[in-house]
Design brief:
285 residues; Beta Polymerase, domain 2; 14% strand; two-stranded antiparallel sheet; alpha+beta
Length: 285
Amino acid sequence: MKAKLVPLSATDNQQRFYRAVLEFLNEGGFRYLVGGGHALEQYAGALRVSKDLDLFVRRADLSSLLEWLGDKGFPTELSFPHWLAKVFSAKDFIDIIFSSGNGVCAVDDSWFEHAVPGETLGMKVNLCPAEELIWSKTFVMERERYDGADIAHVIRARGDRLDWPRLLRRFETHWHVLLSHLILFDFIYPSERSAIPRWLMRDLLQRLEAEQAQPPSRNRLCRGTLLSRSQYRTDVEDWSYQDARQPPFGSMTAEETARWNSATDGSTPQKTGDESLSNAGRSLV
């Protein structure tokens, strides 16, 4: 399978910029994976208008990668130190992603071990594995963006080829999120129910039943912040719930969560959907 060569919205300047960055990364021997709309098209056949290019890298490679591109003349920015950097050319940009906004879906070696060969912009690339694409998208339930349709489209197209055991392991204690999307898939595509293994649904529903038989948790915890940085701020700021993004439950510091939360009021550059709403405060890294 091959993705189409360019996204619908890519201008000639964007294409040259994207291709130049990919060529420089290849020249420097950097490992990266193409995700976003480019990967979604290959896996699901669903072409979504994309105004940027999403590249996934390991956190350990980020500093040297940004320094390399900076030496090649591209301004870079560490937009959010816990998950996102950017590379710029005039008004165009590329997202360099090494985790997720909630700090859960860090890019590790397994992403590269299961990468899928593809092609974009006339170049051979490796795509994010479909399983990791689903994993990272399941948590995106912002008021302005919800990736449930992307997940349903990938499952519809590739359910019989997904490594479901590996995908389940990715969720660990967050398996409720996977179950919620699988239930919605059954609602969306009643004729495609066989795309999801019966053993998986049984496993997750049994977990849910067993959990319901237990007393409520003593931890006054809100895990909604893993799904939306904006819609559960009242819970943790005013109602004294613990934020699941922070220790001992998550990996984000108070400073990282505050910076990520501030993106909701426009005070910090943010990535929403496939575009950055603001390039203000750009700094070289």
